[in-house]
Amino acid sequence: MKKTKILLLSAGSLLGKGVIDSLASRRNHIEFFGLNTNADAPQLYQCDQVQLVANLADEHFESNFLDIVEQYQPDIILPGRDDDIVFLATFSEKHSQHCHRIPAGSSNIAKIIRDKFLTYEWATEKQLPFVESFFYQGKESQSGLKNFVSKCGYPVIAKPREGFGSNGIYVAMSDEHIAALTSIEQLMFQKLLMPSKELPELIKKCKIAIPLYYQIADEQQYAAQTLIKPNGEIIEPFVSVSKMVLGRCESLRRLENTAISTMAKLYALALAKEGWRGPVNIQCKQDEQGNWLAHELNLRFSGGTSSRLLLGFDEIGNLVESFYPNVNLENLSRNVSDELVVRYLGDHLMPATSQKTLQTKKYWKNT
């Protein structure tokens, strides 16, 4: 039986690992071709073949990628990072002969959602619930930032407009913190919803000295995952609550929450009207009044993809079933009781010979 060929960008990312893990039990029907910028992620060597590529920003990336697509002829092309989503949506529009391989939609809306402040402005324009946000643009917006902080109150969170994986995020607890953060470019500020009870104690410790090991686990990371089908239909969102440690999901439980589910559908419908097709991930929290507000949107699978599969939501199976009905891939979605998925650290042997081959020849094939 002919295998389905999947080309996976940024295969060495956490999201890439989730995709590979989610399809592990169905690998007899799958052939993976992974692209990555470096050779040091263990899941790369779970692919059938891997090629090292330049960063997306490289001027030759698109032409090289086009060569790979035309030579390999993948059935499905999937992103592994947020930047890949914008690239693939744009690539699909420029090279329409390959658009059937890419389950995506309008590059315009992809660019908006890639930018966290444009996402806020878009959501506000569409009258969708989103946490109040402010983008600092230099000294000319100093008074605006001061008014924003005065209105929201502390704590305030600061994040890069195009960040990912909780990198480069700060929590401001005072005017002094805000003043220091204004020296960092491309930061947007948001009211920190549902702050951890551990935050004041950590701030107190940091005033004494910096702890050798410190972190604040977010045990209330609420999210909804859904899919916009090619015809614009929305599948029923999967709502979950996760424990996040250092930006990574360490446990996940399914949640019956009508308010979050309804909000997710409203967002997905708005995105569908803007021409998006494919996965949608919405992260949200409650404000002091109990209202659910989105604070981040992603047009992709996420680090919780393989966890959701164990809880009965097969988002990759749903995507293949909706976009590629002729592909022979079982959809593993099923009803699961209220259970908890917990992640443990695992050991992964890095095959030295394979890694050296990939580093030196920029290509590796599993023989």
Number of E-state strands: 15
Morphology call: globular
What is the N-to-C order of secondary-structure elements (H for helix, E for strand)?
EHEEHEHHHEHEEHEHEEEHEEHHEHE
Strand order in the largest sheet: 13-12-9-10-11-14
Give the end-to-end Cα distance, rounded to a whole number of Å. Answer: 19 Å
Helix percent reads 25-40%
Alpha carbon gyration radius = 21 Å
Unreliable stretches covering 5 or more consecutive residues: none
Structural class: alpha+beta
Report a brief summary of the structure.
The chain is built from 12 helices and 15 strands.
Structure keywords:
12 helices; 33% helix; alpha+beta; 367 residues; globular; five-stranded mixed sheet
Q: How would the blueprint of this fold be written?
A:
Blueprint: E1 4-8, H1 14-22, E2 30-36, E3 49-52, H2 61-72, E4 76-78, H3 82-94, H4 107-114, H5 116-125, E5 133-135, H6 142-152, E6 156-160, E7 170-172, H7 175-181, E8 187-191, H8 199-208, E9 218-228, E10 238-245, E11 248-254, H9 258-273, E12 278-286, E13 292-298, H10 305-310, H11 315-323, E14 340-342, H12 352-361, E15 363-365
Parallel strand pairs: 1-2, 1-4, 2-3
Antiparallel strand pairs: 3-15, 5-8, 6-7, 6-8, 9-10, 9-12, 10-11, 11-14, 12-13
Helix pairs in contact: 3-4
Q: Can you describe this structure?
A:
The structure is a single chain. This protein is an alpha+beta fold and 367 residues long. 33% of the residues lie in helices and 23% in strands. The protein contains twelve helices and 15 strands. The chain has helices spanning 14-22, 61-72, 82-94, 107-114, 116-125, 142-152, 175-181, 199-208, 258-273, 305-310, 315-323, 352-361; strands spanning 4-8, 30-36, 49-52, 76-78, 133-135, 156-160, 170-172, 187-191, 218-228, 238-245, 248-254, 278-286, 292-298, 340-342, 363-365. The chain has a six-stranded antiparallel beta sheet with strand order 13-12-9-10-11-14. Strands 4-1-2-3-15 form a five-stranded mixed beta sheet. Strands 5-8-6-7 form a four-stranded antiparallel beta sheet, sandwiched between helices. A hairpin with a 5-residue loop joins β12 (278-286) and β13 (292-298). It is globular, with a radius of gyration of 21 Å. The two termini are 19 Å apart. The mean pLDDT is 92.
